[in-house]
Amino acid sequence: AQTVTQSQPEMSVQEAETVTLSCTYDTSENNYYLFWYKQPPSRQMILVIRQEAYKQQNATENRFSVNFQKAAKSFSLKISDSQLGDTAMYFCAFMIRPFGGTSYGKLTFGQGTILTVHP
Amino acid sequence: GAVVSQHPSRVICKSGTSVKIECRSLDFQATTMFWYRQFPKQSLMLMATSNEGSKATYEQGVEKDKFLINHASLTLSTLTVTSAHPEDSSFYICSARVGAAYGYTFGSGTRLTVV
Question: Looking at residue B56, what DSSP letter applies?
Answer without folding.
Answer: -
